[in-house]
């Protein structure tokens, strides 16, 4: 929630408007800024403080060691470098993976513009890696409704347009269509999903929503309600075409949500409601979370990249030349003012944007460490560091553009169709709780096409009827067979008798 310190000068006089106001750091789904000091300078976001305030857990070496033991995979460099730095109940997910119990991945994007930048792709890159690692279903939500509700100007048509292009950007990350379902709220709300949205909204009071998100009396009620939509996507029972219609089973399947830390309030709220909700005596699984920090804007730590400020970000449609110019011109440098001074004192990698970007985009730990040492001891100059950063970003963006060019409308349809997904889970511990069998998924898919669909109970009844009828038919068949057999035997006996008689007669004649 946004908490703003009352700005004042040391003598208590009100601050004139021209002086930047001193504020605490703000991180919620709608605002992200670092603390503004008395000098008016924005500080880097203090992520440790967020862990304390939000009540999450830091990802430590012990957890990473366990991750490697359980999955047999070296933790992603985002995990190794503290870019994905905090979690809720990630251990529980590892327990389930170890035991072959189902869970799924859930992440999303608010389609607020069609200018996707590298800051947007970070959580998706990590999500793809998690999907490859765990081999589980992934659900990607596009909150077109959210972006309409939280913008003063955007029309529904506009956000739907962004949605259509954002889906292609997301697909270009490289998700596996066999295990990924992408939906937009305007399209998917209804049915099982809407029932869950309403279950969630019924358990959140206005007071709670205000405390979590900082709403007030003038907030439109769509915004106040929106959290229940983002939250209800955490429940597997919102997706019967993937997890089956048996809610008693599906309410127990948790989501693992990779997201930037600003999204945590939605899921704190959902976890709280999950703990209080039951379906026919079976509790709802609380979603687990794994949080990433923000890719800083080119201007430095303390803000994140903005889609509406061209100089703040590297966009996925930028040309190699634009990338080069932006980094050279805008990337905040931790180097010293003169070459002499830099050689003598070295640069500060903790604020240097080019170095910070390399932590995200340069996978090789040894190379990164060499760069850090060389820059900090003054051997490497800012221009050289920026050149490496430019090279890596050009490579990353070019790879994306190549894949993006191949995504067409048919690919989009494939990902957004309501259909069963196929996944394997832990090869050492095959999933023990039944997945949807193809037949049930096909039912759900048929329903999506507007055909009449039966509920689980109706299906059960029908199956019982079918079995009873089959039994009856079998009995009748057996009876008929027995009758036939009896008749055949009788006929045979008669025939034998006749034959014998004929033989007798012949013998007599002879
Ligand atoms: N609210 C998010 C945004 O504006 C989109 C979103 C929906 C999301 N569900 C999510 C992000 C789950 C991360 C995880 O971008």
From TrEMBL:
Keywords tagged on the record: Aminoacyl-tRNA synthetase, ATP-binding, Ligase, Nucleotide-binding, Protein biosynthesis
Region (Disordered): 1-32, 448-510
Compositional bias ranges of the Basic and acidic residues kind: 450-498
InterPro entries: aa-tRNA-synth_I_CS, aa-tRNA-synth_Ic, Rossmann-like_a/b/a_fold, Trp-tRNA-ligase
Residue stretches of biased makeup (Low complexity): 499-510
Enzyme Commission designation: 6.1.1.2
PANTHER family: TRYPTOPHAN--TRNA LIGASE, CYTOPLASMIC (PTHR10055:SF1), TRYPTOPHANYL-TRNA SYNTHETASE (PTHR10055)
Family from the record: Belongs to the class-I aminoacyl-tRNA synthetase family.
Name this protein carries in UniProt: tryptophan--tRNA ligase
Organism name: Humicola insolens (Soft-rot fungus)
